[in-house]
Specification:
Length: 147
């Protein structure tokens, strides 16, 4: 519970620093997807783009957009994402994240990726903002620019 609250505060800080003072974050989701690929950060502006990532979450795209962090692939069950911090400025958002392997080693599985989805009101969308995801030791994981 404490980790979820910490993530909500981090996301709220991201949204507030992105240029809007009063923003309500409606949805936060984590999970796995079997869509192939590697580490990436993706901005989704419509249901089709979200479904292509293998994610089924209730996003109201008329007033919201999604930001999805995908990590993997993995062939053992039990991996999960940890979002350590999110810091934003007028030009860039920096996310520090890593994946935690299963404590018991997991079970063999078909390849999958973990994801974290943030749903943010369109009012804070700013084209050209860079989004960098790095490990706690500052190694790059993924990078994107809001189109």
């Amino acid at each position: 519970m404490r980790g979820a609250v910490k993530r909500w505060w981090a996301l709220a800080a991201l949204v507030l620093l992105a240029g809007c003072r009063e923003v309500r974050v409606k949805t936060y989701a984590v999970g796995t997807t079997t869509v192939v690929g590697g580490d990436q950060i993706v901005v989704v502006r419509n249901r089709g783009a979200l479904e292509r990532l293998g994610i089924k979450e209730p996003v109201q795209f008329r007033g919201e957009f999604g930001v999805v962090l995908l990590m993997g692939p993995h062939d053992r069950t039990g991996y999960r994402q940890i979002i350590e911090s999110i810091r934003a400025s007028a030009e860039r958002v920096r996310v520090v994240a890593f994946e935690e392997p299963p404590a018991d080693g997991g079970e063999p599985s078909t390849p999958y990726r973990t994801y974290t989805l943030w749903v943010v009101p369109n009012a804070v969308y700013r084209s050209g903002i860079g989004v960098d995801v790095v490990t706690p030791s500052d190694q790059p994981i993924a990078r994107s620019v809001l189109p």
